[in-house]
Design goal:
373 residues; Gyrase A, domain 2; 6-stranded mixed beta sheet; 6-stranded antiparallel beta barrel; 9 helices; 18% helix
């Protein structure tokens, strides 16, 4: 019997499964251990799934992400102290991306905060940081109430140029009126859902929040597979899609030893907001000596996390993320280099003990051709 969030013990290790685990298995997905979660790496293949998201629609199970509800008269003030971005910008039913920092400016996690109503917020965090983030947030929310609602809420992502058309078949709400990082409450065949026009692929799309017991929502979405080309999509394609779109991954491209000023997140640091936030003093006094940039390998090799970056034979940095881009048909990635390194500068990457020619680029490799109407 499938529980809301099943936990099993295998060889003295705790393994967690989302409500859709049995569906993934029935579809022949390759299952991998992702930070303690048994998650689908791929179904039809990473390349096929990636291309389908860029051309049609991909369906992602992202129920492993952490979801915290924060309520109370002082919830805004408490959250403002935790995040570097300015939540005062948000009206009801809007969302905002932001890092949370330690006192020294290092990143606790990067999160999305949703304003659901007055004194009512939802915060979505990375699956690998769920316990750490809950402890951190609870520690600093003395005047508000925080509750981990991850187990009782399911989370699916619909991503791709035909995502809006597909969902429009299932909801009465005019989805073209929903702007990016805006939220709408609706129903999918009597299943209450919150739709957020957000995602992690660089494509148009929505993330769907709902009661985790309503796993039939998967089949309701998949019934339009032939019409809209929707396919289940795993973690493998999710990683190549986010890399092409210039979206960073916590644990790879940033962590507690990285500040938002060293990666392309300066735009999320609101030093002038009314509320003081944790890490502000450190960021004001910060003088970064390194920066995260994109790169392209000019030879037929794929760089991976941890590979050394060299300039004129001297080690100057390292790769944080690297993969083959199915859209651009070349090897791309992110790496740390000294701040004085310019774009399109020649570098070398040590792959397997041999140095391969590469060049620095923007961190955003792909931008969809058509904007949302």
């Amino acid at each position: 019997m499938t529980t809301i969030c099943s936990i099993i013990r295998i060889h003295l290790r705790w393994i967690v499964r989302t409500p859709f685990y049995d569906i993934h298995k029935s579809l022949g997905a390759k299952i991998v251990n992702f930070h303690g979660w048994e998650m689908p790496l791929q179904y039809s293949g990473i390349m096929d799934e990636h291309v389908n998201v860029r051309t049609n629609v991909g369906l992602f199970d992202v129920s492993h992400m952490g979801r915290f509800e924060i309520k109370g008269q002082h919830s805004l003030a408490c959250l403002q102290r935790l995040v570097t971005n300015d939540l005062e910008k948000l009206a009801d039913h809007q969302a905002l991306y932001s890092p949370m920092c330690y006192e020294d400016g290092g990143i606790v996690d990067d999160i999305i905060a949703y304003r659901l109503g007055r004194d009512n917020y939802l915060v979505v965090v990375n699956a690998s940081n769920r316990s750490k983030d809950l402890e951190w947030i609870s520690k600093h929310l003395k005047s508000a109430h925080v509750e981990d609602i991850s187990d009782r809420t399911g989370l699916l992502a619909i991503q791709g140029p035909r995502a809006s058309d597909l969902l429009q078949k299932l909801v009465e709400t005019d989805l073209q009126s929903v702007k990016p990082f805006h939220i709408v409450d609706t129903k999918i065949d009597k299943i209450e859902c919150m739709l957020s026009r957000t995602g992690y692929t660089g494509e148009d799309g929505f993330e769907l929040f709902f009661d985790s017991s309503r796993i039939e929502i998967w089949d309701k979405l998949m019934q339009y597979a032939k019409i809209f080309g929707i396919k289940p999509t795993g973690l493998g394609a999710r990683d190549t899609l986010r890399l092409e779109a210039g979206l960073m991954l916590y644990g790879n491209d940033m962590d507690e030893n990285t500040t938002p000023l060293e990666v392309p997140l300066k735009w999320t640091v609101s030093l002038n907001k009314k509320q003081e936030f944790i890490g502000k003093k450190a960021l004001i006094n910060s003088r970064p000596s390194r920066k995260l940039v994109g790169f392209e390998v000019l030879e037929k090799r794929i760089a991976r996390q941890g590979n050394k970056v060299l300039i004129k034979g001297m080690e100057v940095g390292f790769v944080t993320s690297g993969n083959f881009s199915p859209t651009l048909r070349k090897s791309i990635g992110f790496c740390f280099v000294p701040t004085e390194v310019s774009q399109d500068q020649s570098i070398e990457i040590d792959i397997g003990g041999k140095h391969y020619e590469a060049k620095t680029t923007s961190t955003r490799f792909y931008k969809r051709k058509q904007s949302m109407q």
